[in-house]
Structures
1.
Amino acid sequence: MTTVAAYAAPAAKAPLERTTIERREVGEFDVLIDIKFAGICHSDIHQAREGWGKAIFPMVPGHEIAGIVSEVGSGVTRFKAGDRVGVGCMVDSCRECENCRAGLEQYCLKGMVGTYNALAENGEPTYGGYSQKIVVDENFTLRIPDGISLDEAAPLLCAGITTYSPLRHWDAGPGKKVAIVGLGGLGHMGVKLAHALGAEVTVLSQSLRKKEDGLKLGADHYHATSDPKTFEELRGTFDLIVSTVSAPLDLGAYLSLLRTDGALVNVGAPEDPVSLNLFSVISGRKTLAGSGIGGIRETQEMLDFCAERGIGAEIELIGASEINDAYERVLSSDVRYRFVIDTATI
């Protein structure tokens, strides 16, 4: 076991504080990663505050991890010391079920093992990226291409793949009209990726406050959802709407913006249930769907896609002592567009 410094939430809703954790010894198929940067995802806040249900404490959040391999196990063939790598939202799965065999480990039928707030195969809790080092099986480690800086790559491991996966699955591309709901950590990546895929991109945000940013990121249009005229003017417009917000929406209103056979895909997860009049989907043969991260193969595809096109996250680099302030700023939408922790400050 190796003792490393980390930032952890000791209990639900408690401020995160510096502590130490134990990392397992490097096994035959493991890689030891010196973490350089860790993104702050809204999911971290939901889980640290038990917004999504009972959680495991102490909790070391962080599933947007970028770093350098410092050691590999004797059986590792994919990586060597010095490689630039990343770790996303999962560190294991059963590897045997139908979904795992299809490269959809995120939908493992026995339940994938989260990078934090989960139990590993040995029954020990997993600890995430707000730490100096992590040991991960090579099969759940991603290669970060040279075309992306490590700090801007870290958020791709969650925000990037969470938006890339539904855009690819629902065929966003030339000739398609795509709307991204919310221009935050997830939404800004959705705009960049949908634009890079060739779609006509619209941002649907509460206000026009970030309009200039949205257009610079690649949006063709930008509308305020607080204006009732938006829903009148855009009725029946979109092939695909990806909602990145974690606040409950009037789903019927957003479904009305879809063309026949269009899809509204949720990647943001509100803490409270939402209601729906089923005529909103029956009329127009519309789809209300959800999507969760991506498999390892697709995540690598996304990283390579971003490197080829020079796409990284828009980040604000912070020291570890600023984590608690950053959480409050995320909740008040005061970040453009992803906080990333310089783990050298832990």
2.
Amino acid sequence: MITQDQFNTEIDLIITNAIREDVGDGDHSSLACIPAEATGKAKLLVKDKGIIAGVEFAKQVFAYIDKDLKVETHINDGSPVNYGDIVFYVEGSSQSILKAERLVLNAMQRMSAIATKTKQFVDLLEGTGTKVLDTRKTTPGIRALEKWAVKIGGGENHRFALYDMIMLKDNHIDFAGGITKAIEKTKQYLKDTNRDLKIIVEARNLDEIQEILKTEGVYRILIDNFNYQDTKKAVALIGNTCLTESSGGINEQTIRNYAECGVNYISSGALTHSVYNMDLSLKAV
């Protein structure tokens, strides 16, 4: 995973680009009918049920728009919410509140949906020792927000992007001429470029797992699209040689069964690509 400084930079870029996209040369609706000196107060109202996420992001947005806006937080990130709950109040320039409104709502609605789904998966794994991972199957341009939401929901972040971890999947292996060649070429590349990146290798069957285990330096084996029986065999074969990760269409009905096979991690693209936004509103008070 990227450093906290890198992550903070991603968040800053998201805010800057989102405001550029949404505001342009001015919020003319507000400029036209609300005096520049007018002040007001608004509340973030929950009209749904789940896990709230994006409160801290909202504070950053408000500060970016207007450092004089004041936020009074009533419910923190990661907390369960129900219909009618008030997450926070924001007070200050009415024009500033309206300028920030859409970005705050868009981000918090999506982040809360992701956090809610992640928490469901985490709860299903309680007591197994298996952790939930996200993937790169995120919305282009706002990956940092979606991965932040996974953490808020109790999950773990996989690699952030292509540059912070090596992940040799089926196409890499086939293009490279096989698993052993792919791994050896990767290790040589890391040595030649003086990079310290962890290596994950995908296995499509038990024979490929046995081949991976013949080569040192693999951090984690991705046990992809295996059934329960073969996943148990894979975990037994790997033992303590490296970490294990199951993936491939795993859902709420199957996730517990895969965890009970003994894998360290289960990754799911559904955490970020298959959620329905939580219904939230920012209402003047």
